[in-house]
Amino acid sequence: MNDLTGKPVYLDHAATTPMLPAAIEAMTRHLSEVGNPSSLHASGRRARRVVEEARETIAGAMSCRPGDVVFTSGGTEADNLALKGAFWSRHQADPRRRRILSTAVEHHAVLDPLMWLAEEVDAEVELLPVDRYGRLEVEALRTSIERDPGSVALVSVMWANNEVGTLQPVDEVVALASRHGIPVHTDAVQAVGNVPVDFAASGVDMLTLTGHKVGGPFGVGALVVRRELEVTAMLHGGGQERDIRSGTLDAPAIAGFAAAVEAAVKGQPEHAERIAVLRDRLVADVRRVVPDAVANGHPTLRLPGNAHLRFPGCAGDSLLMLLDARDIECSTGSACSAGIAQPSHVLIAMGMDEEDALSSLRFSLGHTSTDADVDALAAAIGPCVDRARASRQPVAR
Amino acid sequence: MAGPLKVVAAMSGGVDSAVAAARAVEAGHDVTGIHLALSRNPASYRSGARGCCTLEDAHDARRAADVIGIPFYVWDLSERFHEDVVVDFMDEYAAGRTPNPCLRCNEKIKFAAVLDRAIGLGFDAVATGHYARLRVAADGEVELHRAEDDGKDQSYVLGVLTQDQLRHSLFPLGDTPKSQVRQEAERRGLRVADKPDSHDICFVSDGDNAGWLREKLGERAPNHGGDIVDDASGEVLGHHDGTYAFTIGQRKGLRLGRPAADGKPRFVLDIEPVSGTVKVGPRAALRVGRLEASHARWCGAAPGRLMGTVQLRAHGSEHRAVVTADGDHVDVELIDPAEGIAPGQSAVVYDGTRVVGSATISATHPAGSR
């Protein structure tokens, strides 16, 4: 518990972060207004205006054209649309294009659509290896592309890893792929607002972002997709979003989303600087109490708010529970639908064994994080680690 | 146990464990709800119906914890469960015995693996929804007794618990009839109130033990087909595809072409896993007067020699008996003979309502023999 606020110490901003005041204001302003953005009358036009102004705001913040922004229900839908939609159209245009190149550390919103494409529509998915920090082995990508560039339908590499925080060499990926005219998708859900993300400068063709990770509402996100790239629709209906995404547009949520993106991108440099300092102190303070704690992920090329630590001899889910009992909230990485902590595929891909993977926890900071949060963790982590370690010793009975 | 304790409530997603958790909270304990995931891939064991480990059960347990207002976590016991319960179940059947996996689960998982982890994490006790009672005797020993509700009494499956395990256990439902527990669940707003009771083995889908075993055991040597022979004459009466499909006392599914000479039904009397021979005979030959058992587990001190009762099945009746314990070996003279008792079943020994302990039946002897 935070002594000042009486609220839990929330160290799970990578899961979701509180809405920014500007986003709450923008969203609630429109909640009481009637109007379907597709209607032709005055109320419809007013709602449409809200959506289009939001689109322009996001385009400004992301350095893309407003027409590149396709609103979705969030990151998962945007990833599905990018991968399935682009594979479909590229494969239709040239049946030789069967390969999709990605990394072993992608989020499940990328991995699972890829597995589906492999199983159901005969795509050939190659998950390229990463180094021990979780960063793509660019040479492996080069070799894979150059083996047969004409057979590559697309490349998808996340901007920043959601678990260990490592940034990916997206510029190098684009350099390799664009030489052969291969489109590149990047899941930038964790990156936007935390590191500079410039769609135009990056050279990627498709980019996923979502509202609730940048201080916007749940249930809204976008795929930024270059208009020149043909993407087959996955959700069919009214064709509201450039005919590649259907569904009535949620004007209030879109307004809140745009306000959050604008504020997060504008404030990114100061935000990143502040929480990187806080994050470094968190790691140092924890390691002062638990000297054998190991920081996972890249030491410098990483998200500013992410601290991913391995506590040797602890079961991560035990440690999470013990911290939770002291109102300190963090994450084990991934859990199955029943709620069982699973050995992270990211850590396994980084070369960790199952036991080490299961002894790691993610602490992620965000715009509401304070020194008091780090102090509370530093005070609690020692006894919790001792307890978690003791619980691993079998009791004679 | 007295005073407010830090308690782990094992919540299956059913009505009993939900009410047990709620009562533990009401008794002033600091309660954390735990659902045990017994399979890494939770949909793989049984779907839809009540069991230990479906996604639906995890969901129901979580919702019950929400309503009660306690923290809730899922603990992954899948590896231990597979090794200690599922593999044990298969091995026992492969060896021609008839095990009760619920006792094994209580012995190895719920009151061992879970309790170990809970105590390590700073908890004092595990609470479950079992219908059984705990009493503290004058000498301070914790005694396990049958539940108030005879029809729901589950002390049989707890007969494997040791004194140390009992000292760290809470059974908040022991004094209450089941019907009252359902009403209480409804009153407390626990949606699980209308769920049916679970009876079958949780990791076997559709209650089809033979089908499950056929699939899992596959071509394991002791389960090849064999002869069905008349126990008295030695005459071969038929053939079967695997001994796992039979239990002692079974009458149905023998598919013998010819009726017995006396026209009366025939029952499985014995299973020889190595040769694959299944022996059948008349009902009278099923009567058992004496049992030998091993793998003894006592709730307190070993009894030596005791005039008491034994229960031989989860919902079986009581048999008066003279029980003699000698180390790990237990000899049971049944005053009231039993019928169709198979090696592998557990004999739970009672002194009145008190559970003395349990042992796994290793051999049976006909009534009247000494």
UniProtKB/TrEMBL annotation, chain A:
<dbReference type="GO" id="GO:0031071">
    <property type="term" value="F:cysteine desulfurase activity"/>
</dbReference>
<keyword id="KW-0408">Iron</keyword>
<dbReference type="InterPro" id="IPR000192">
    <property type="entry name" value="Aminotrans_V_dom"/>
</dbReference>
<dbReference type="InterPro" id="IPR015421">
    <property type="entry name" value="PyrdxlP-dep_Trfase_major"/>
</dbReference>
<dbReference type="InterPro" id="IPR016454">
    <property type="entry name" value="Cysteine_dSase"/>
</dbReference>
<dbReference type="GO" id="GO:0051536">
    <property type="term" value="F:iron-sulfur cluster binding"/>
</dbReference>
<keyword id="KW-0808">Transferase</keyword>
<dbReference type="Pfam" id="PF00266">
    <property type="entry name" value="Aminotran_5"/>
</dbReference>
<dbReference type="InterPro" id="IPR015424">
    <property type="entry name" value="PyrdxlP-dep_Trfase"/>
</dbReference>
<feature type="domain" description="Aminotransferase class V">
    <location>
        <begin position="9"/>
        <end position="377"/>
    </location>
</feature>
<keyword id="KW-0663">Pyridoxal phosphate</keyword>
<keyword id="KW-0411">Iron-sulfur</keyword>
<comment type="similarity">
    <text>Belongs to the class-V pyridoxal-phosphate-dependent aminotransferase family. NifS/IscS subfamily.</text>
</comment>
<dbReference type="GO" id="GO:0046872">
    <property type="term" value="F:metal ion binding"/>
</dbReference>
<dbReference type="InterPro" id="IPR015422">
    <property type="entry name" value="PyrdxlP-dep_Trfase_small"/>
</dbReference>
<keyword id="KW-0479">Metal-binding</keyword>
<protein>
    <recommendedName>
        <fullName>cysteine desulfurase</fullName>
        <ecNumber>2.8.1.7</ecNumber>
    </recommendedName>
</protein>
<dbReference type="InterPro" id="IPR020578">
    <property type="entry name" value="Aminotrans_V_PyrdxlP_BS"/>
</dbReference>
UniProtKB/TrEMBL annotation, chain B:
<dbReference type="Pfam" id="PF20259">
    <property type="entry name" value="tRNA_Me_trans_M"/>
</dbReference>
<keyword id="KW-0547">Nucleotide-binding</keyword>
<feature type="site" description="Interaction with tRNA">
    <location>
        <position position="130"/>
    </location>
</feature>
<keyword id="KW-0820">tRNA-binding</keyword>
<dbReference type="GO" id="GO:0103016">
    <property type="term" value="F:tRNA-uridine 2-sulfurtransferase activity"/>
</dbReference>
<keyword id="KW-0819">tRNA processing</keyword>
<keyword id="KW-0694">RNA-binding</keyword>
<protein>
    <recommendedName>
        <fullName>tRNA-specific 2-thiouridylase MnmA</fullName>
        <ecNumber>2.8.1.13</ecNumber>
    </recommendedName>
</protein>
<feature type="site" description="Interaction with tRNA">
    <location>
        <position position="345"/>
    </location>
</feature>
<feature type="binding site">
    <location>
        <position position="36"/>
    </location>
    <ligand>
        <name>ATP</name>
    </ligand>
</feature>
<feature type="disulfide bond" description="Alternate">
    <location>
        <begin position="105"/>
        <end position="202"/>
    </location>
</feature>
<dbReference type="InterPro" id="IPR046885">
    <property type="entry name" value="MnmA-like_C"/>
</dbReference>
<dbReference type="GO" id="GO:0005737">
    <property type="term" value="C:cytoplasm"/>
</dbReference>
<feature type="region of interest" description="Interaction with tRNA">
    <location>
        <begin position="152"/>
        <end position="154"/>
    </location>
</feature>
<dbReference type="InterPro" id="IPR023382">
    <property type="entry name" value="MnmA-like_central_sf"/>
</dbReference>
<dbReference type="GO" id="GO:0002143">
    <property type="term" value="P:tRNA wobble position uridine thiolation"/>
</dbReference>
<feature type="domain" description="tRNA-specific 2-thiouridylase MnmA-like central">
    <location>
        <begin position="217"/>
        <end position="281"/>
    </location>
</feature>
<keyword id="KW-0963">Cytoplasm</keyword>
<dbReference type="GO" id="GO:0005524">
    <property type="term" value="F:ATP binding"/>
</dbReference>
<keyword id="KW-0067">ATP-binding</keyword>
<feature type="binding site">
    <location>
        <begin position="10"/>
        <end position="17"/>
    </location>
    <ligand>
        <name>ATP</name>
    </ligand>
</feature>
<feature type="active site" description="Nucleophile">
    <location>
        <position position="105"/>
    </location>
</feature>
